[in-house]
Fold this protein.
Amino acid sequence: MTFQEYRGIKAVSIARLSEHIGEEVLVQGWLYNKRGKGKLHFLQVRDGSGIVQVVASKNDLDEESFEACKDLTQESSLRVIGKPVADERAPSGVELQPTHIEIVSIAKDYPITKKEHGPGFLMEHRHLWLRSNKQMAVMRIRNELLKGVRDFFYERGFALMDSPIFTPNACEGTSTLFATKYFEDMAYLTQSGQLYAEASAMALGKVYCLGPTFRAEKSKTRRHLTEFWMVEPEAAFYDLDDVMQLAEDFLIYLAERCLERSRADLLILERDVAALEMAASGPYPRISYDEAADLILESGDETFKRGDDFGAPHETFLSERFDKPVMVHTWPAEIKAFYMKRDPDKPNYVKGVDVIARGAGEIIGGAQREDDLELLEQRIRDHDLPMEAFSWYLDLRRYGSVPHGGFGLGIERALSWISGVSHVRETIPFPRMLDRLHP
Ligand code: 4AD
Ligand code: MG
């Protein structure tokens, strides 16, 4: 038994129909939409790879097949045997002329209809909303983006070394930890794989980790999830300039790749492709925190003081000053994590970098790490962190410490930038947010 063949005819995905013009193929999926009556029905059939129009005419079909067309409702599942014919007007470039149509299961009263639904309703039906044309397009780009992430690092000799999700201590500050019972002890869900990636880099040289990360952030913005995916490269013998160059090469690679392989999906989402093409070329502007602060202050913004971290409006302002993602480096130590290396030329500043992209805000946070044992111990004390929890991390500075650094790219924010989808809740299959754990 197989479902990949029916009546001796092989199943083909809608995305590949154009390779089978004139051959008889089997298409299996769901009814997206339907119009027509009398002797002619136009069925929009989707299978996840694309949507194809099936032109069902009473004259070409057996009676049962034609009756099936009449009964099909939105999101009913079906199997169609037919021949793809080239059609320039169709987004997939083909139309399907059926010889047999069969219902698999009739869907009754599908809740998401053509009428406008509010985001609350759609989020509550996320398990079904994923079947909508735009949502499918975002998820296909996500798939391409993640494959691009893995290929980029693989091709450059970075080894995949995943960090644990249960951790005994904080990486990015103690205020956003999710605690969970761990047998008789407590554990925290990881906020970032970085500290372990540093240990991995001291073993394999160039590494990256990629996985879910968690932040109990009480932010209700369009850029915050409580569970998000992050890719974190870390490399030995990297300084801040090396980290910035890697980040730039990486973002250009990802943008180019999605432009090349996901163009049809970007068009479904009405992404301004020309703007993305501009962002897919280097070099990216690099400005210091102080220069960025000057730009904000010169604009007359009174919500900002020098020394503050940037809020969403400041990021938006900065990203719109440039037509490419902007790298902001050399930050006040006070507003950055304990592990960032002090700038020897600028006391109280650290060698950190944030990359800010139009529409998505901060997509990358990275740094050169403090590699001096005593300075790092001092930073742990300054931040009131428990020294004993970091003793393993301090070993990395005790045994063959080297300059090193890396960054974290949030997958959902990066996808928001590439796809032009403004809310991160649409860039992950099942978003987890302050007020959402369902479905
Ligand atoms: O700037 P962050 O906090 O940096 C780190 O976690 C470092 N340890 C990374 C490293 O150097 N290895 O987070 C990195 C990125 C942000 O730039 C953003 O893209 C994403 O993670 N991010 C979030 N995405 C969605 N929802 C949230 N609540 C996020 N918090 C951070
Ligand atoms: Mg950050």
The longest helix spans residues 133-155.
